[in-house]
Amino acid sequence: MAWLRRLLIILALLAAAPALAVQPDEIVTDPAKETRARELSRQLRCMVCQNQSIDDSDAPLARDLRILVRERLQAGDSNQQVLDFLVQRYGEFVLLNPRLRWQTALLWFAPPLLLIGGGLALFMLARRRAGGAPTNDAVTPQGGALTADEERRLARLMKSQDRS
Amino acid sequence: MIPEIGHFALVLALALGIMQGSVPFYGALRNDSLLMATAVPTAVAQFVFIAISFAALTMCYVGSDFSVVNVFENSHSLKPLIYKISGVWGNHEGSMLLWVLILALFGALVALFGGNLPITLRANVLAVQSWIAVAFMVFILATSNPFMRLAPAPGEGRDLNPLLQDPGLAIHPPLLYVGYVGLSISFSFAIAALIEGRIDAAWARWVRPWTLLAWIFLTLGISMGSYWAYYTLGWGGWWFWDPVENASFMPWLITTALLHSAVVMEKRNALKIWTILLAIMAFSLSLVGTFLVRSGVLTSVHAFATDPSRGVFILALLVLFIGGAFVLFAWRAPLLKQGGLFAPVSREGALVLNNLFLVTACMSVFVGTLYPLALEALTGEKISVGAPFFNATFGPLFLVLLLAVPFGPLLAWKRGDLPGVAQRLMAAAGVALAVMVGCYAVVQGGPVLAPLVVGIAVYVIIGAFTDLAERTGLFRMSPKAALARAAGLPRSAWGTMIAHLALGITLIGIVGETQFGTERIAEMKPGQSIEIGGYDIRFDGMATRPGPNYSDQIARFTVQRGGAVIGEIEPSKRTFPARSTTRTEAALMSRGFSQIYVSLGDPSPGGTIAVRAYHKPLVLLIWLGTIVMVLGGLLSLSDRRLRVGAPKPARSKPVMQPAE
């Protein structure tokens, strides 16, 4: 029922008049620090919201976190230190960009693996189909490869069809 | 009386659906044309009864019949008529009814316009289509019945969620649903082909227009939803990688892949099994999307329906249809004969590459969307996957894909000439490079990524024109002859060119908004001005204005540039008393393709108000691009008439033949 409780909180928050995401009074005077704060805010999740960063959220918690981020920056923390601090306090859930750990390995590696795997599969398929592996141009074809005579016929056919 | 008519009509439609799902299928098994022929009238009748049911619910809403629970919970007598109607699908029960209505509509369309289909194929397609409808009608009647009564009837309704009382959201769900549900047709065709164990180029030709139609609506629906979020949610974001957005984006990506692979199948009789698989995946992702949104498994901005018993029901449907489809695929697909050889470097090869990237891009969205759910279910650990992840994985994949886009149409079928094509794209690459360097010089010290992406966008646009120039022989023959050839080009060729061009347009909009946009947050007193993107915005004061079922607290601003007044904008806070909720109404002013965007925070006792102002350069190109994309799709769709049906007599003018 955790989701239900969360939903009720959200509804309660919606019912209150929504404020702006970043309030004028939160902004720090140093523009460089403010830019860094905004950058960090976009990577941090508002934990009581549905998929919103603290930069976008109107919730009071998001405001507290934004102020906290700015306090840490004012205290001289690096971006990484701020993130580490928040993770220590609120858990990995606070990061919108999950760190690479064994629990998230599949998340990060699935897309590149699929691309590489798919590319390899296509490459193998093309090789098998064409049968034209450089080492395999002997007269006796293996598997689905074509004989030299068939290759010539194929080329002729393709040429004649290309014109249509 | 009206709700009971609607309820009864839905039960009748269910009975008809069971008949439509079994009799024609049995007829196809026994090769009995009489039994198969029943599919047509039952499909039409099923649609008619669901339409009666839907009309009944709409009448309850229009007449504010609060004795119906669904109307009581989601409507209000003072609501404007358009939101009374859109309230029908602004809630879980009604939106599911809309879902089956569209499903039945597509079934009826196939029945009516499928006269040229082989009779067994049509029977099987309609039977499969009907089983989907039956499953969802059972779901509605068992867990989500919109016709339940309430006694005694309350005097007033609870009103629709104010966020949904918006013209954008009135039409967004129907558009999206036509897209989502339209994919059921290609799914049904795929399943029918697997059942028959036979598939050929003609199959692709029948499926392609349906897929294209679904794709057009999906594109419009996603675009509309994005624009709605942009102006409604009050912080000017237009894409949040929200699970619900992803749920509509994943089918879009796969459908785009399907459109391309169906071309290969139609023209070259190749990629059959792959095309079938994509057709199954596209609709499966629609179902997954429906599950994500409707089950409440995610609590996100959009999920306004939450009830776990429904979730389990939809999950069961999901397993049944997707699992069943894949089992059937594994069993029957090896029976399908492969045909059509092609060299890796060829139009076919390029389309395969397109498919690889689109499917991988979709996979990255899929993993990112479902991983947190899976991890939490398995280990109990909660993580978040948000925009930074998707930008890091999806972004590069799509940019690489865009680099390949202009190559596709320029490569010849079967065996292409890669160096030759690269040479023809030199001009596009050259201009893109120049733009990139120019852009870099202008924004020096600014974002590094921006000039690169602008360059890619320019390259895609000029690449699309290169395709056109090549086809018409623009630089090789007289302008007049080129014009004649342009007029004679098949519309699908125009469609391809325009849709590809549109990708570049959207990309420019995305770069403009994300990389060159500026933002100001300030506390303002009446008379004060702030500067944003070269404009001065002066706060003139507050006022109140009543609306039909809400009241607006307006802040008036005057926009000036170089001392000259350009216009006024009035962002507001809109309060809906029925739900005692307030929402921020941002004010937008368009200047060319750019926009000034102002939204309000809380007024403070001292007469000041918190203001968030943005300058969003070229932001409108994002949605303009999607509209152009849709135009490309429509052009391609209108080409269908030329290809489907009896072969046309040879054209009289030989100039119209495009040289390849």
The residue-averaged pLDDT of chain B reads 87
- Secondary-structure-based class of chain A equals mainly alpha
* Structural Rg of chain A: 29 Å
> CATH homologous superfamily of the largest domain in chain A, by name?
Cytochrome C biogenesis protein
**Proportion of helical residues of chain B:** 55-70%
Average of per-residue pLDDT values of chain A: 76
Q: Looking at the structure, what is the overall shape of chain A?
A: elongated
Number of strands of chain A: 0
What percent strand of chain A?
Answer: under 5%
Give a brief description:
Chain A has 6 helices and no strands. With 164 residues, chain A is mostly helical.
Describe the overall structure.
The complex is a heterodimer of chains A (164) and B (660). Helices cover 57% and strands 0% of the residues of chain A. Chain A is mainly alpha-helical. Chain A folds into two domains: 2-99, Helicase, Ruva Protein, domain 3, CATH 1.10.8; 103-162, no CATH class. Mean pLDDT of chain A is 76; it is low at 1-5, 7-19 and 132-143. With 660 residues, chain B is α+β, with helices and mostly antiparallel strands. Helix content of chain B is 63%, strand content 11%. Chain B has helices at 2-30, 33-37, 39-62, 69-74, 81-86, 92-113, 119-143, 167-196, 201-232, 243-268, 272-295, 308-332, 347-379, 387-404, 407-410, 418-424, 426-442, 449-472, 479-488, 491-516, 620-638, 640-643; strands spanning 518-524, 529-532, 535-546, 551-561, 564-569, 572-576, 581-585, 587-591, 594-603, 609-616. The chains are: A mainly alpha (164), B alpha+beta (660). At the A-B interface, helix 1, helix 5 and helix 6 of A face helix 13, helix 14, strand 1, strand 7 and strand 9 of B.
